[in-house]
Amino acid sequence: METQTKASLVPVANASSGKVAGASPAWAINVADMPRVNSLVSPLESDKQLHIVVSLKLRNEAQLNRFLHELNQSGSPAYGRFLTPQQFKEAYAPSDGQLRAVVLHLQQAGFTHIQPAPNNLLISADGNATNIAAAFRTQIRQFTTPEGQQRFANDAPAQVPQALGDIVSAVLGLQSVHGPQASSESAAPMSTRDVRLASISDPAQYTKVYDAGSTPSGVNTSVAVICQGDVSWLPASLNAYTDQEHLPRIPISLVPIADGVGQGTVTPFAPPGCWPVPIVGVSAGLAKLTAYAGAVKVGSYLTEATLTAMYNRAVTDNSAKIIHSAYNQDETWAHNSGAQAADDAIFKQAVAQGQTFVVPSGDFGVYEAYAGVIYQKDLSKYSVSEPASSPYVVAVGATNTTLNPDFSWAGEHVFSASADYWQGDMYGSGGGVSLFEQAPSWQTDALGSAVSMRVVPDLAFDGWLYYRGASGNASAIFAGLWARIQSAHNNSLGLPTERMYQHFSKDPSPTHDIVGGYNGAYTGGTPSFTGYRCTLGWDYCTGWGSLDIAKFNDYVTQYWGSPAGNVYASYFTWPIPDLGSVAGPITINDRSGNGPAALQVAVKISHPHRGDLRITLVAPNGVRTVLKQPDPNDSGANIDQSWSVDAAAFPANGKWQLWVDDAFKGNTGSLNQWSLTF
Description:
Layout: E1 20-22, E2 42-43, E3 50-56, H1 61-71, H2 85-91, H3 96-108, E4 112-116, E5 122-127, H4 129-136, E6 140-144, E7 150-154, E8 159-161, E9 168-172, E10 181-182, E11 186-187, H5 206-209, E12 222-228, H6 234-244, E13 252-257, H7 277-283, E14 288-294, H8 304-317, E15 322-325, E16 327-330, H9 331-337, H10 339-352, E17 356-360, E18 385-386, E19 394-403, E20 409-414, E21 432-438, H11 441-447, E22 453-456, E23 459-462, E24 466-468, H12 470-488, H13 497-504, E25 511-512, E26 546-547, H14 549-559, E27 567-570, E28 574-576, E29 581-588, E30 599-606, E31 613-618, E32 624-628, E33 639-645, E34 654-662, E35 669-677
Parallel strand pairs: 12-14, 12-15, 13-14, 15-17, 17-19, 19-23
Antiparallel strand pairs: 1-8, 2-6, 3-5, 3-9, 4-5, 6-7, 10-16, 11-24, 16-18, 19-20, 21-22, 25-26, 27-35, 28-35, 29-34, 30-33, 30-35, 31-32, 31-34
């Protein structure tokens, strides 16, 4: 039996199980809308090597969520104070002790090539069915699909010892029934595109369509793209494009990721999964482009394990301000395999570091679960894609755009290429309501209390380049647009969705509101269309619509403000044990010289007897300044106080610590917040 909590949406330990606890949702071979294959099932050969990725749970997640909210609040001391990977690891990643416990468990089960990720969130390993059975109490079985494809899957939920139940989040790589697909599978023939007054033949023309005006190029911002296969051709191809457009050549780094490569064919296409030309065309230049490429051969597929590993590598490298991935899959598949929980933890670290993931909302309208094959399906069952449903990414839908003869924007409507239900196939802009991700407060505040689960998309742009894969092109347009905005604002902006929803609900002036059309299927009945209709304001087809780049840049300047230049705060809650000590750190890395002669230190502590406490400020050079001594005669509760410290002889940059010591027996408390004002 598995239980879930609304807060984490990750299976937790079953306290009544005694020896084992649920660590990953089950992948059942006989699931709805999949063929029943029991007669063909047999144990997987013991000599067949499998690659797995174990995802670990974040620590102190409630405090992390509070920090992420404050990080995007103009006027907050935490606003724009992004963490380094090391700072994130120290405060929120699984501890080294937790990591070692899982590594030991894998070693004892016989796994080899065990490799922890730098942030402790993932552990990759190689093993066989016997090792998996020993480690996770599940059997790996293989079968042949009606199409003749060989597949394998675990026949029961993965389990771990009770001691690891609060550490392990998911185990990826236990099945090959499904996997992520790139939203860029085949180019659209001209006959499928809308008739326009002018046709786009070059992504750089989007700077006219969406009115870049005098907005600076993205030349100061680095971007990463998630790819698959051999991308050795990419530098020469991209250089040819930038030369053609008279744009500066972009430094390109290719990072191969070999972990978790799948075998067998899922689709007749082997798409590269990334084509950064739309990003470059819209941005008109980048500081650097990094391509993370899963080493997938033609005829193979990208596994969830590889894709999650690439996401994590891009985040731990922390060299790109924007990360674009064209991959997506049905949300329920991702939830059941554990990929959704694993990806969310990685996306949270990205937000904390000031990185923005940009992803497509999907290309099968409201029928992601059916991959657009709707004939003889229950059309009342809508679904959305992952990772678009994550609250920690920007989800972008697709439109068809009508242009004026000079290529300026004339109109836009939702992308939908569905003929009718009886034809059986539908393609359209993904959008709808998540089944598993709770709506962030900023989305509920903007759209109303009825919105309790995450809804998508956030925005939508033209998807002209692809018939299937339109939202991949649309999301690439936004990635290029966002690179311009970041460069114009010194790369000081974090995930933009929270502030978009806060301000667009009151002043949508930089948006193109898209009205009319559906992202469902034509049925010929009553009603004649399924899915959602594009309406005034935010909708499930196109979100807030598309953006006028120049107006949006001015809008950001007007409403979003700049990070506080002199205030540094810690919002992490540190328990103060009875007769114990705690040291809450604040790391500063953006100031020069020494501190001021009147450094302000503000402290908030919950404690029933504040007289028990000694408070000491420790400067980066180790010099200690006692702010408060214990006082047995002070029987008051809690502390909310500021002190002035002469820090003129202390270096400003480095790790500052606030030590809180409990000197008398009998009470516990917590350091809730403290800040430094220079």
